[in-house]
Amino acid sequence: MNPRPAGRVVTLTANPSLDRTLSLPGPLERGAVARLGPSSTEPGGKGVNVARAVAAAGGDVVCVLPAADDDPIVRALHGLGLRLASVPVPAPVRTNYTLTEPDGTTTKLNEPGTALDEATRAALTAALHEHADGARWVVLSGSLPAGTPLDWYASLVAALRDTGARIAVDTSEEPLKALLGAGPAAAPDLLKPNTEELAQLTGVPEDAILADPDVALTAVASLHDRGVAAVLLTLGADGAMLSTADGGLWSAQPPRITVRSTVGAGDSSLAGYVLADLAGAPPAERLGTAVAYGSASASLPGSAVPTPAQVDGSAVRVTTGAPADARRGVSTPPAPHAPAAGRGAR
Fold it and tell me: Region 280-294: what's the mean pLDDT?
């Protein structure tokens, strides 16, 4: 039996969702009628997914999110036994739709989230700070609703420094650029980009990052130069790479799996990293656990998160240094961090 993770984790999901997964009988055909297979609806949003995975491992976790007390997502999360710090908003939480094909291909249709006014953002900040005090990790994940200042994550990182918690951020596009553009005070302890997001941050073409490990390493090093302590770079079907500001570098290859859904796989990967850190694991083991969790998630339907019993860390190969093969995602079938897990899924 795995020991209970030591230390509290707090997640912020500024743009939560109910994730509705619809199973297609074959490839999606525009304009055609599809007779769907089994479907499911689960509480979602990237921070919520991280919290669900941490809780499934027996961890102490608090979900901070905007939602009315009677919102379906609140009832669903209470039903899972999660501890919530919710701030009421007038509109219901959005619904995101995922269409899954038999070969594991996923198509995401995301509704816009509820706009957060200044008072709601202040209440979320206060709740986050309260629960972060004395916590081991704070995870800021996902997109920001329309109208939210693009530098809000940057402001939150700086404001959370006095709590003593380490801070992980997983976001994209303009909020990601604003985070790294705000200077070292806003640089997180852990950043989890994929190759598309690394390209957004550095201005290096994604094709160049995918084609040449040296280009990828130079791009990652530029994030350390801007104050980021650790970078967990997901590499699609080729696993992930962990780089630390003190010069540490590790790569991990995922096991072969049958992909059922990549939705939430990146979130499970981040949860695996945090869980391994809570257990006192060294960096190489943290990376291996992250990839094992992402792979286990991708083998499950919908946006289900894995339990420790479903995670096989021994099937992940971790090596010191950069990946040997620069050709990402060409021939390896498993895709624990495929595009649907990290692009357009915020």
Answer: 96
Say how far apart CA 299 and CA 42 lie, in whole Å.
17
Examine residue 3 and state whether it is found in any structural domain, yes or no: no
The encoded tokens of residue 237 equal 């079907």
Other CB atoms within 10 Å distance of the CB of residue 103: 10
Contact (CB, 8 A) for 287 and 272: no
pLDDT tens-place string over residues 193-238: 999 999 999 999 999 998 888 999 999 999 999 999 999 998 877 8
- Give the range of the structural domain holding residue 321, as residue numbers without chain letter: 8-342
Residues of the chain with pLDDT > 90, as a percent, come to 75
Question: What CATH number corresponds to the domain at position 224?
Answer: 3.40.1190.20
Burial of 70 (0-12, 13-18, 19+ CB in 10 A): exposed
| Least confident interval from 71-75, 179-183, 213-217, 259-263 | 259-263
Record the tokens describing residue 278, joined without a space.
């809570």
Domain count, the chain: 1
* Average pLDDT score, the chain: 89
In a domain, 24, yes or no: yes
Both tokens of residue 216?
Answer: 């990828």
Q: Name the active-site residue from 151, 189, 267, 277.
A: 267
Is 267 an active-site residue? yes
Tokens of 20: 């509705």
CB 343 within 8 A of CB 271: no
Q: Full-prediction pTM beyond 0.85? A: yes
In whole angstroms, how far apart are CA 279 and each of 81, 100, 273, 293?
22, 34, 10, 15
* Residue 227 resides in a domain: yes
How far apart CA 4 and CA 256 sit, in angstroms, is 28
